[in-house]
Design a protein that fits this description.
This protein is an all-alpha fold and about 70 residues long. The chain has a domain of about 45 residues. The chain is globular and about 35 Å long.
């Protein structure tokens, strides 16, 4: 199996603190695993939407809505 490589992503501390509180109530074991899950979901959904007819503005609004429901906006 090929070894995975990782990178570091910086987010504002207040946002990280909010996310850590949020994941305390979920099955996520770390902030990294939570962020990785969110990115996979967004990228996967974006790829699926690209097959459809949604415009860029609609995709941004959908993403903003999801982040708002999760308490990040």
């Amino acid at each position: 199996m090929e070894e995975q490589k990782f990178t570091t992503v910086s987010i504002p501390k207040p946002l990280a603190d909010k996310a850590k509180k949020f994941i305390g109530e979920t099955g996520f074991t770390s902030l990294s695993s939570f962020v990785e899950y969110l990115l996979r979901e967004i990228v996967s959904e974006s790829s699926e939407e690209n097959k459809g007819k949604k415009g860029k503005d609609e995709k941004v609004l959908d993403l903003e809505d999801k982040l708002r429901r999760l308490g990040y906006m």
